[in-house]
Structures are given as structure tokens and as C-alpha cells.
């Protein structure tokens, strides 16, 4: 069944009011659209866990640090709505820019520490944009639960910290990364890859798998990192922004997996920035 598409906050609030009064749980899946099976796995998780499910689509200008990236970001609302039909969600919330950031908007949510590293170090202001829009979406939808992908592991940890710090009573669920058959993590940005770059793109995940196996075998981290970066550059990646092992909980840098850890990477390929991460565990 096609879900009702809501574009106004007051309509969204009128829609959720009876659900809240009936004590129903409301699961929210925030997205920027261009939906793929990764997003749809979050919808499935929300459907399994909650009485009501709202998917949101908002290409959030506040989290783009590059105007060209914002302009090029794929927008496929019609197809997105069609892909959601089989899930029988309760509402698709698609606010426009002024609805989210009306004239005079002047607040932002900043999470410190966790945002200084990895993508935060390379995309100034990005996580302020994420934390602000996610806080707004949690409050606008009255989410009891929200579903995020481990694909954006740093984002997931920042959203968890933000909700905890601000006493927003939304339970944040992390869901596994969904991949293409060749291992490439699904991403809306993959649509921007040329055919040639698409063939090279899975190398990032391949190198990360190889590195993780070697780390678990006890190999020292730095030479593995250096060799993997070299191979990626030879394969055609123009810049590896980071390829690091960090602790799951506070994202502190590790060179041996003495605590639950992930290997995280960001790299540019033919003008597209790809990110990925995997657990470092046997
Ligand atoms: P985005 O539309 O890229 O902002 O992503 C919306 C949500 O989908 C975020 O919670 C992402 O982490 C999640 N997501 C994106 N790609 C994947 C994937 N390949 N597997 C699982 N979740 C994903």
C-alpha cells in the first residue's frame, strides 16, 4: 500500500497524536532518499519492532559541507515511494527546506569529541548538521525508536550520544551494513560512480577484509595500513582520507584490537567519496 506522504509538520503531528494516545511505539527511519536495500533493511527492522513506522526523506543542506555535493545528491522521491509500498509503512515524511529551517533558524546541536575524528576531521560542520536534523526528526515524529545503519558507524555513535545527552527518549538501533554481491557497501552515492569506477569500488572493502584478517593474526597495524593505502592508490583511488582502527564505544584510535573495534575508511574514487567500516573480530 502506498504510504501517505506528509510534507507539513502540523500534519505529521496530527497523524502521530492518536498513535501516541494509544500508547503505540513509533519507529522512525531517517534517510536522504535514493533508497536502496540498505535503507529498506532498516525499514524491515522498524516494521518488526514497532507498531507504527515513519520513513523520512530529507536531503539536509546543513550536513553538506560542499555545495556541489548537495546539488549532485540523487533525488528519486517517486521511485523511493514505490520501493516502500511493500512494507506498508504508516507515513512517509518529506519536509522541504523551509519546513525544517524556517526563516530565522539559529540553533544547532553539537556533539563534541566523537565528531573531531574520521569524517568529522574531513567534513567541517557535517556532524552538527546531522545531530541537529536528527534531533529535530526525533522530536517532530515523537519516535520511540529509530533505526540507523552501521554503514555510517561514526554517525550512529554520535546520534546515540546526542539522544542520551539531551534526554531524548528515542531508542537508537544500529543495523548491519548491506552490501552488493561484490562486497561494496550500498550507498546512494554509488549511483554517481562511472561504470569503470564501479568495478574498482569494491577494492576498498576487499583491502579492509584483508587487513582485518592480518590484524587478527597479530600483524602490526602501521605497515598493513601503509600497504593497503598504496594498493588502493594503484587501483585508482585518488585519496584515502583515513584507514584507521578505532574503539567501538568512544572511537579512540587503536593499533591492536584490545577492545571491541572497527576498521573504518573513507576514500575518493573518480570524484565520489566512499566510506566503509567493518568489525575487527574473529
Ligand atoms: P542516508 O540516506 O545515506 O543518509 O542513510 C540513511 C540511513 O540508512 C542511515 O542510517 C545509514 O546508515 C543507512 N544506510 C545507508 N547505507 C546503508 C547500508 N548499505 N546498509 C545499512 N544501512 C545503510
Automatic annotation (TrEMBL):
It is found in: Cytoplasm. It is an enzyme of class 6 (ligase). Keywords: ATP-binding, Cytoplasm, Ligase, Nucleotide-binding, Pantothenate biosynthesis. Its main location: cytoplasm. (R)-pantoate binds at residues 63, 155. It holds the Pfam family Pantoate_ligase. Pathway: Cofactor biosynthesis; (R)-pantothenate biosynthesis; (R)-pantothenate from (R)-pantoate and beta-alanine: step 1/1. One of its GO terms (molecular function) is ATP binding. The active site is at residue 39. InterPro entries: Cyt_trans-like, Pantoate_ligase, Pantoate_ligase_C, Rossmann-like_a/b/a_fold. Beta-alanine binds at residue 63. ATP binds at residues 32-39, 149-152, 178, 186-189. It catalyses: (R)-pantoate + beta-alanine + ATP = (R)-pantothenate + AMP + diphosphate + H(+). Its EC number is 6.3.2.1. SUPFAM superfamilies: Nucleotidylyl transferase. One of its GO terms (cellular component) is cytosol. Homodimer. Catalyzes the condensation of pantoate with beta-alanine in an ATP-dependent reaction via a pantoyl-adenylate intermediate. HAMAP family: PanC. PANTHER family: CYTIDYLATE KINASE/PANTOATE-BETA-ALANINE LIGASE (PTHR21299), PANTOATE--BETA-ALANINE LIGASE (PTHR21299:SF1). The reaction proceeds by a bi uni uni bi ping pong mechanism. Belongs to the pantothenate synthetase family. This is Pantothenate synthetase. It comes from Roseovarius marisflavi. The lineage of its organism: Bacteria, Pseudomonadati, Pseudomonadota, Alphaproteobacteria, Rhodobacterales. The gene is panC.
Amino acid at each position: 500500500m502506498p504510504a501517505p506522504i506528509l510534507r507539513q509538520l502540523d500534519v505529521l503531528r496530527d497523524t502521530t497524536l492518536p498513535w501516541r494516545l494509544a500508547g503505540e511505539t513509533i519507529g522512525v527511519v531517517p534517510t536522504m532518499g535514493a533508497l536502496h536495500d540498505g535503507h529498506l533493511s532498516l525499514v524491515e527492522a522498524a516494521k518488526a519492532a514497532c507498531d507504527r513506522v515513519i520513513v523520512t526523506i530529507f536531503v539536509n543542506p546543513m550536513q553538506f559541507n560542499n555545495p556541489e555535493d548537495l546539488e549532485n545528491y540523487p533525488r528519486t522521491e517517486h521511485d523511493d515511494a514505490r520501493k516502500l509500498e511493500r512494507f506498508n509503512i504508516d507515513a512517509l515524511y518529506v519536509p522541504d527546506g523551509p519546513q525544517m529551517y524556517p526563516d530565522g533558524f539559529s540553533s544547532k546541536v553539537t556533539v563534541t569529541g566523537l565528531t573531531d575524528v574520521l569524517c568529522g576531521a574531513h567534513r567541517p560542520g557535517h556532524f552538527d548538521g546531522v545531530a541537529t536534523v536528527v534531533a529535530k526528526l526525533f522530536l517532530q515524529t515523537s519516535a520511540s525508536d529509530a533505526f540507523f545503519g552501521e554503514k555510517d558507524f561514526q554517525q550512529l555513535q554520535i546520534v546515540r550520544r546526542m539522544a542520551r545527552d539531551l534526554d531524548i527518549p528515542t531508542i537508537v538501533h544500529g543495523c548491519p551494513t548491506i552490501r552488493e554481491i561484490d562486497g561494496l557497501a550500498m550507498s546512494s552515492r554509488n549511483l554517481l560512480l562511472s561504470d569503470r569506477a564501479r568495478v574498482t569500488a569494491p577494492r576498498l572493502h576487499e583491502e579492509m577484509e584483508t587487513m582485518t584478517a592480518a590484524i587478527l593474526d597479530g600483524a602490526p597495524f602501521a605497515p598493513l595500513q601503509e600497504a593497503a593505502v598504496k594498493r588502493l592508490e594503484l587501483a585508482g583511488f585518488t585519496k584515502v582520507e583515513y584507514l584507521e582502527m578505532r574503539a567501538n564505544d568512544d572511537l579512540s584510535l587503536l593499533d591492536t584490537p584490545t577492545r571491541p573495534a572497527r576498521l573504518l575508511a573513507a576514500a575518493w574514487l573518480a570524484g565520489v567519496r566512499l566510506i566503509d567500516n567493518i568489525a575487527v573480530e574473529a
